[in-house]
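Before drawing any conclusions, I needed to go through one protein's amino acid sequence and its C-alpha cells, quoted below without any editing.
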Amino acid sequence: MTSTLTLAEDRAQRLDAAAQAWNERLSADPANGSLSFTVTGSGTGAVASDIKAGRHTFQVDEPAPLAGDDAAASPVEYALAALASCQIVVYRLYAQQLGIQVDDIKVTANGDLDVHGLFGADPSVRPGFTGVQLDVQLTGPESTERYRELQRVVDEHCPVLDVFKNPVPVSVNVLVSGR
C-alpha cells in the first residue's frame, strides 16, 4: 500500500517528529542543545565568493555598481534570504505546535543600506543595514488574534531574527601566509 500524504500532512509529521526528537535529546542532556555551524568561502572572479556550507555550495557576488559580475545574489541579499527563510521555518514550527492552521506563508524582507558607510565616505553612517522591514503574509482560516499570537511566539524564537535584532559577539582572526 502506498502512502499519499498531502504536503501539509507530510510537513506536520516532519515537524512533530523533529520536535519530539529534540525534546528527547534535550531531556537526556541539556548540552545536546548546543549546535555549531561552519561556512567557508574563497574569492573568485572580480569580487565573488564560492561558499561551502556543510554539503552545500553556492556563489555570492555583487552587482556591477559594486564591482561584481552579478553572477549570484549579494551578501546582503543572502542575509535577507536567511531572515526570510528562517521566519518561514519558525512560523511553520510554531503553527504546528500551537495548533494554528497556516495554509500558505510568504515573507518579504527589505533592507536599507547606505553606501556612505560601506565606502567610508561618512564615518557616522553604519556600513550595514540601517533598517529591515519584514512583511509576513499568512493564509489560513484562523482569527487575526491567533495569527498575532503566532507572530509573538515566532518573534521570540526565530534565530536569524535574533541575530538581526541583537548584537552578537564576533571575533576576527586574520592569518597571513605566503610571505
Notes: The two ends are 66 Å apart (CA to CA).
